[in-house]
Amino acid sequence: LPRIGFVDYEDELAFGFLNLTLVIRAVHLLPCFASGRTILHLPRRSICRLAEEKDEDWDMFYVNIFIDRDMFMRFRGGGVG
User: Fold this and answer.
1) What pTM did the predictor assign?
2) Which residues pair with 49 in a beta bridge?
3) Strand 37-38 to strand 29-31: parallel, antiparallel, or no bridges (unpaired)?
4) Torsion angle of alpha carbons 40, 10, 14, 2, nearest 10°?
5) Is 35 buried (19+), middle (13-18) or exposed (0-12) by CB count in 10 A?
6) How much is the average pLDDT of 18-45?
7) Reduced to 3 states, what is the DSSP secondary structure of residue 71?
8) Which residues on neighbouring strands pair with residue 37, listed in sequence order?
9) CB 3 within 8 A of CB 36
């Protein structure tokens, strides 16, 4: 599966790649447990995490390209129903 991760939030080009006409509206991300957790990517206080997460975020995420076999077959063709 493809992997993604955070970039330094203070980098002025951190979100410069976004073209608002091409933004993906939703994606299913899976934490990459092997990469562990980190405190390096987002500021200490962030609305992006729960208070009990102790300022930690997953270092990397897998992009789940197949939600389940039914969804895959729906768009590939050949699925039941």
Assistant:
1) 0.57
2) none
3) unpaired
4) 0
5) middle
6) 76
7) helix
8) 58
9) no
Q: How far is CA 53 from CA 20, 39, 48, 57, 62, in A?
A: 31, 10, 10, 8, 20
The span from the CA of 9 to the CA of 12, in Å, is: 8
Query: For residue range 42-56, what is the model confidence (pLDDT) as tens digits?
Result: 666 666 667 776 777
Calpha distance 63→44 (Å, rounded): 25
- Three-state secondary structure along 15-67? CCCCCCCCCCCCCCEEECHHHCEECCCCCCCCCCCCHHHCCCEECEEEECCCC
What's the mean pLDDT when you consider all of the chain?
Answer: 74
Nearest CA among 46, 70, 66, 49 for reference residue 58 = 49
Domain residue limits, the chain: 3-14+21-76
